[in-house]
Structure formats: C-alpha cells, structure tokens
Write a structure and sequence with these properties.
- By secondary structure, this protein is α/β, with parallel strands linked by helices.
- The protein is about 40% helix and about 15% strand.
- The chain has nine helices and ten strands.
- The strands form two sheets. Strands 1, 2, 3, 4, 5, 7, 8 and 9 form an eight-stranded mixed beta sheet that branches. The protein has a two-stranded parallel ribbon with strand order 6-10.
- Helix 2 packs antiparallel against helix 3.
Length: about 290
C-alpha cells in the first residue's frame, strides 16, 4: 500500500514539475535593479500619493457622466494618471465576437482589457467587482457557472440581442508570470458560445518589479501600479476559433489554449486545475517567507 501511495505521489510530482518557475514569489528585483528601485522609492511614494488623490477625483466624475465619448476620455485620463499605458493589436478582431478568452497576469488585467476592447469582464464565486463593465457570477463549479453564464442575454439562445457588449473571460485558475506555461483552462467559458476569439496579454514594468505575486491581492497590485513610474500592457487579439460540429468541448478548449500558448511561446501545463491548487497549498510555507 505504501509503495503504491509512493508511486502515485511521485507521478503527481512529475506532472506538476512544469509549475515551478511559473509563479513569482517575490515582487522585488535582483542585481542592479535593486539599487535603482531603492533610489526611486521616495519619488515612487510621492507618485503613489499624488496619483491616489487625483484618481479619486476622476473616479467621482466617472460616476456622474453617462456612457459615451466623454466618459471614454475620462477613462483614458484615469489610466494615464495611474501610469497605465495600454496598446492593442485589434487587426483580427471580429465585430460580431461575443466572447474573448485571455491569459491571466494580475488582479488588474480587467483594466487593460476594458480599455483595449470596451468589454465586460467576469469574476466568479460572487467575488470581485469593477468601476467598469463587470459581471459577477455567484457560482463556483464549472457546471453551475455554465448554467449561470447561459442566462446572460448575449448567450441565451431564446434571447436576441442586437446591440451587445462582448465578454472577456480569463479561464486560468490563477495569474502566472507568463514566462513558462499556460495553466489549465476551466471548462465553463467554452460552453457559452460556439465561437471564441482568443487574446494574449503581456505586461512589463521598469526596475524589474513584477506585476503580481502568487499570494498578492488586488490592493497590493494596485499599490505597486501607482508606485511604479509606468506599467505597459499590450493586448493582441488572435483570429476567432469556431467549435467543429463533432468537436468535443474539451478539444475545443484545448485548441484555443494551444493557439494562445503558441502566440506567447509557452507550453500548456499537463495538469488539472485541482492539481495546481494542491501544489500551491504545499508551497505556502515557502511563500509566506517573502514580502510582497
């Protein structure tokens, strides 16, 4: 019995080996970048304070003004105040796309996606929210999320919507540093529509500071965003992928994921979402030793 359990444990460790290096534990850089960051810190703290005060004023205006060109201008102004520069390659974007699927880099990816695509982002488990178009789904399991998602007007077969806002969903179980692998995708987004348009998201920042860490929160990510001189996001939309008549949901999901991995020059992790959570739980004793 012990031999069998030992063999199962060894096979599991072999499967999750790809996860090593995919998550950033410490946000701080190494080498010369550390010196530059220390010298920049007084200015960074001043910028963080100034940007926070200015952003509060802009956000108040966002609540007052209705949707339109003026609000779009204020949005871009708010992003500029926060030091966020978003560029996008939309040459493959289809006007009738209802569902975009992208990779995850941080808790603030939705800001870049909204500005680039004017889309509605999605969170699950009844958590999350945004000042911009955002849909909170209360369910957590793939089956329940699929049912809840199909009740949205854009994906309801019994409802015809002429003027719709596309949804952007990031089906990876959590953010990665985007340098090694794509985490396994959850199934439920691929049940909503037969056509999905993949997108890839990349982000960079001066001084070598990381966009997020494995146990970071939205507030920590936001602090480092206003502290840093600038954060660059780039969104590239890939050609749409249509589900074949006899193609299974899993094959459809894998096809989308492989196209994204190829564009990012990454490989797809051969693990299940539950194995990622198990591996991270086992790493908590190491993660807690780092300040993020």
């Amino acid at each position: 019995m012990r031999m069998r359990e030992s063999n199962m444990e060894e096979r599991w460790r072999e499967r999750v080996r790809d996860l090593e290096g995919s998550f950033t534990v410490s946000r701080f850089p190494e080498g010369l970048h550390v010196v530059l960051l220390i010298l920049y810190t007084p200015l960074g703290l001043f910028l963080a304070f100034l940007r926070t005060c200015m952003s509060l004023q802009v956000l108040l205006l966002l609540y007052i003004f209705p949707e339109g060109m003026l609000k779009r201008f204020l949005l871009r102004l708010a992003f500029g105040v926060l030091g966020i520069i978003v560029t996008a390659d939309l040459s493959n974007k289809e006007c009738n796309t209802k569902l975009f699927v992208g990779n995850r880099l941080s808790h603030l990816d939705g800001l870049a996606l909204h500005l680039a695509l004017d889309c509605t982002t999605v969170s699950t488990g009844g958590k999350g929210g945004s000042l911009f178009n955002h849909q909170v789904l209360k369910s957590e399991s793939d089956e329940d999320l699929s049912a809840e998602g199909k009740e949205l007007p854009e994906f309801d077969e019994n409802c015809s919507v002429a003027d719709f806002t596309p949804y952007a969903i990031q089906p990876e179980v959590m953010p990665t540093n985007g340098t090694c692998i794509l985490l396994p995708f959850r199934d439920w987004p691929f049940t909503l529509d037969s056509t999905v348009q993949p997108l890839v998201l990349t982000a960079t920042r001066p001084f070598g500071t990381q966009i997020t860490t494995v146990d970071s929160s939205m507030m920590w990510d936001l602090f480092w965003m206003v502290f840093s001189p600038i954060t660059f996001f780039h969104v590239r939309v890939l050609p749409p992928v249509e589900k074949g008549a006899h193609q299974s949901r899993n094959d459809f999901k894998q096809e989308v994921q492989e196209k994204m991995a190829e564009e990012l020059e990454l490989k797809v992790a051969a693990v299940e979402p539950e194995e990622v959570c198990r591996w991270l739980k086992g790493m908590q004793h190491f993660i807690r030793g780092h300040f993020v």
